[in-house]
């Protein structure tokens, strides 16, 4: 049984009924909300284990409801707006940070063609001939939320955090874009579904290993995660660009950070780890790359990258600002 017919093409998009488009959009949104909640909990658990601590264990069985409790706590807190801020931009900044992070996931493929109530549809919201460039462009918009948050707060520390973030993203997007170029040249396409199909015989992590390593470093810098979390360095900038934020506005910045982690992990999976295709030797079975099984392989690969994010945060000290920029 050949699985080639299961790979969607650009012609397979744009034919879904409205209810199916809405259902897919809701599924992507739920994926992007649930995974950060789980990632926050597991990050605290894994960090506690690596540091020989107990970690959260009070809310729910073995602390599994800790993220939910934190979300409720932030939602019920009073939203304080400091004096001297540019109120409109101050309130818009968290939204500008979150919305692009969610939009970027529209072109990420979760699986092959499947049947949903008799409709043949790809497990992907949409795709574009320049799908990967769309992700790069949309995620770049998110940095405006960080810059505007720092500028509108009317405080020195958030402003410095915002400026650091700007320099960081500009520096590392160049390296990230060059890693994309190697993938485009071999796959002969910029669409995410086409790149996954091009990896049917071999994954690009083996063929383009230097590009994968550069992308892995760049994605940590792009998401402002330790050891590259310079825009929010507590020892230097108190809390960084979101020092003056509280309540749901602070929660939106946190959500944007973890959604960006999921997005760059999903993009790494799509570009270098065969996307939703099953790993060897599971891929030798006919059922492995058909139906809904690929969603499982895709999720496991994304979580492998998320674990690396957590591992790096626990293991490595923060780089000095000039060292990090020289590395870029």
Automatic annotation (TrEMBL):
Q: Which GO terms describe its biological process?
A: aerobic respiration
Q: Which residues cross the membrane?
A: 18-42, 88-111, 131-151, 172-197, 203-221, 258-279, 291-312
Q: Which GO terms describe its molecular function?
A: NADH dehydrogenase activity
Its subcellular locations are: Cell membrane; Membrane
Tell me the domain of life: Bacteria
- Keyword annotations: Membrane, NAD, Transmembrane, Transmembrane helix
Primary location recorded for the protein, binned into one broad class: membrane
One Pfam match, given by its short name, reads NADHdh
Q: Name one GO cellular component term.
A: plasma membrane
Note whether NAD occurs among the keywords.
yes
Q: Does the keyword Transmembrane apply?
A: yes
Its record classes its membrane topology as: Multi-pass membrane protein
- InterPro entries reported for this sequence: NADH_UbQ_OxRdtase_su1/FPO (IPR001694), NADH_UbQ_OxRdtase_su1_CS (IPR018086)
Similarity remark: Belongs to the complex I subunit 1 family.
Q: What's the protein called, per UniProt?
A: NADH-quinone oxidoreductase subunit NuoH
């Amino acid at each position: 049984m050949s699985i080639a017919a299961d790979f969607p093409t650009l012609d397979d998009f744009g034919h879904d009924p409205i209810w199916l488009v809405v259902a897919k959009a809701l599924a992507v949104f739920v994926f992007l909300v649930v995974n950060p909640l789980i990632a926050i909990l597991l990050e605290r658990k894994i960090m506690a284990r690596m540091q020989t601590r107990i970690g959260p264990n009070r809310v729910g069985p073995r602390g599994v409801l800790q993220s939910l409790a934190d979300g409720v706590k932030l939602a019920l807190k009073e939203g304080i707006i400091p004096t001297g801020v540019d109120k409109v931009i101050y309130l818009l900044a968290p939204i500008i940070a979150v919305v692009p992070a969610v939009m970027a996931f529209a072109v990420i493929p979760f699986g092959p063609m499947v049947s949903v109530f008799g409709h043949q549809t790809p497990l992907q919201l949409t795709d574009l001939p320049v799908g990967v460039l769309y992700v790069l462009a949309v995620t770049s918009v998110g940095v405006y939320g960080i810059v505007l948050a720092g500028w509108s707060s009317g405080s020195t520390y958030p402003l410095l955090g915002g400026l650091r973030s700007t320099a960081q993203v500009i520096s590392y997007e160049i390296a990230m874009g060059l890693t994309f170029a190697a993938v485009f040249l071999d796959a002969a396409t910029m669409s995410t579904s086409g790149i996954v199909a091009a990896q049917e015989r071999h994954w690009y992590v083996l063929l383009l290993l230097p590009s994968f390593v550069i992308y892995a470093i760049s994605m940590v810098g792009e998401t402002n995660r330790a050891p590259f979390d310079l825009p929010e360095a507590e020892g230097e900038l108190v809390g960084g660009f979101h020092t003056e934020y509280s309540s749901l506005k602070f929660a939106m910045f946190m959500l944007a950070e973890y959604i960006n982690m999921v997005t760059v992990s999903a993009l790494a999976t799509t570009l270098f780890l065969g996307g939703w295709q099953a790993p060897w030797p599971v891929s030798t079975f006919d059922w492995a790359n058909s139906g809904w099984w690929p969603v499982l392989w895709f999720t496991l690969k994304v979580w492998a990258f998320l674990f690396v994010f957590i591992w790096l945060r626990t293991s490595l000290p923060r780089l000095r600002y000039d060292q990090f920029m020289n590395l870029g």
